[in-house]
Every structure is written in C-alpha cells, then in structure tokens.
Amino acid sequence: MNFVSAGESHGKALAGIIEGLPSNLEIDIDEINYYLALRQSGYGRGARQKIESDKVEILSGVRNGKTLGSPLAFAVKNNDYENWREFMAPEGCDVTKRRLTKVRPGHADLTGMLKYDTDDARNVLERASARETAARVVAGTVARQYLRAFGVEVSGYVKSVCGICDNKEYSFEALSAAKKQPLFMLDGELQKKAVALIDGLKAAGDTAGGVAEIRVKGLKSGFGSCMRYGDKLDAAICGALMSVQAVKGVEIGLGFKAADLAGSKVHDEIYYKNGFHRKSNNAGGIEGGMSNGEEIIVRAAVKPIPTLMRGLATVDTETMQPAKAAGERSDVIAICAAEIILESVTALTLAQAVAKRLGGDNMREVTQRYRDLR
Fold first, then answer.
1. What average pLDDT score do residues 202-218 get?
2. Hey, which of 18, 102, 127, 194 would disulfide with 161, CB 3.0 to 4.6 Å?
C-alpha cells in the first residue's frame, strides 16, 4: 500500500493517491470529513482555519461507497486559493508580489531556498507548510477504516502543553473524550492552566508546543520484522511521526525513561494462561521491531510554531541585512491538529504493515487471512 500527496498551501487543492487498497473496503466519507474538521480545531488556532472548511472529494477508486481495487485518488480544495490566485496560479501569475525573503528561523525557508535555487521562500514554504497534512489525514482515515475491518482502532490525546504535563494513565476507551475538549486534554484542571498559558503567550506574540500520545488497540502480534532492519515496525512508526511538520522527538512505550531504570523495572515479564500475556506494557506494544499484541503506545514532541507574531531575528536574503522574520500565520499552538495528524500517519503506517504481511486483492480474503493469524 503506497500513498503520495501533492499540493501547495495556497494552491488550488491538496491531492493524494492511495495504491494497493483491496476491493470492497467500505469508505465512510463523513468520517474522513470529521477528522478533517478535527484537524482544523483546537484552542490557539489562527484565522486560516476560519477560511478553510475542508471536505474531501473522491476522484477515483471508489464506487457506491466501496473501493474497486484500483488507485484511490482524492482532492481537498483550498478555499483560500481565490485570495491567492494572482500570486499562485500555475497557468501564470505575478511572482513579484507576496515574495518572502525575510526567512523565518525554524522553518524550511532558508535551507530550502539554497537547496532549490530560488530567491523567493514562497516556492519552498508553500509545500513545506503543515497545510499539506490535510491530505495525510484523508489517507490516514481511509487506513483507519481498513484497520477497523480487523478490529484495530487508533486514538490519542494531548499529554502536555508547553510543560504543563498530564502524567496520569488512561484506558483506551477514555481517550475518545479528549476530542470534545478545547485542547484535547483529559485533565480539566491542567487544561485550564494550559489555556491561560496560551492566552499569555498570544498576548506576548509567542507560541507553544506540546506532546501527543497515540494509542493503538487490537493489532495482533507479528507485524513488522526482526529479520530486516528496514522492516522494523517501531522504525516505520517513528519515521512516519518524525515526518510530520514540527515533530522533534518520538518515543515508544517508556521511551527515554527506560534509559534511567534497571532492567527489572523495564522489561515486560511474560505469562501464560489461555494464551501468552504481559502484566505491564513498558515496551509500548513492540518488541524486536514487531507488534507483540499489546497496545501500541507512541508519544511525539511537537515544537512551538516557529512563526512568532513579534518576529525573530533573521536576515533578508534580498538585501543581506538584519531583519525581523516575516509572519505567515497567526496560530499560537497547533497541538490538537498535530494529534489528529499523528493518529492519521500512525494508522497509515500500520495499514501498510498489515497489507505487506497479508497481501490480498479483496477485503474478504484479507480479513480471512487476518483471522487465521495466531
């Protein structure tokens, strides 16, 4: 199963193609649009979210609500394109306007300009923008529906905001309540503190980051491989999460805490009673690069948004003189969007691992193969 996306932040649309889906997978477009809306939600978001109201349009690969086995192509229209047509139109536009040369620290601007030989960071930032992740949410929701056919579910919540951290443990079933909260946090008192902190940062022209925890329930053991390092499931998940804009760290299970503990407090002892089981899950559901049947637990650290309204010190690449970095957006924090995106890329990565092991041209034979696994 392969996925590729295309599109710029202020271009006509975001587009994607998913190859390798079996036939007869039921596609719920309403659910895709639900997760697209969640991606645009959350306390601390900026004005761009009021312009866009993302909806997916399936272009091919689906008939009467079910996949055909052919590539599934889709598009998400950029409503803001009408405000940018004269600067972004591929048929011809005025490239002397809306140029960006006061490159922003923490963004792809300067490095991308040097790499792609352009004197306008607009040619870089339009694709580097997190707006691209709307396409990944679409693909991830299709993958979520594929996994659900096997009884696998993906969920998550926001664990911390700018150092305000929730250290409680929650059941998988409790996580769904997070999506009804302004910051996707499950502890109401900590969330109030985080909201107040965000308000203060907004007044100061500053930004915040946070940590999201993603959980997967119901995946059988044996997905991934210990035989080929490129097929390790934890490597694939970490790589996928690190590919999301602003993510600077990923851990599975105990993660970095495991380095501070004795082995007796880290490794999950194995028992047998009507099947193998573990009483703890410090490994986060993955051992030796393979799923072990326990819940997969992943956390990702999301850095503060690098575009600050007060502007950071930089250089204007046109004059080579000191300048204040340009402002392209007004979000203070986008941790809720990041949480949805991280769920989506996790679902897509797991769907690819399942498809690689099971193969199959139609959902009936794929689900039978999954049932036959130990």
1. 95
2. 194
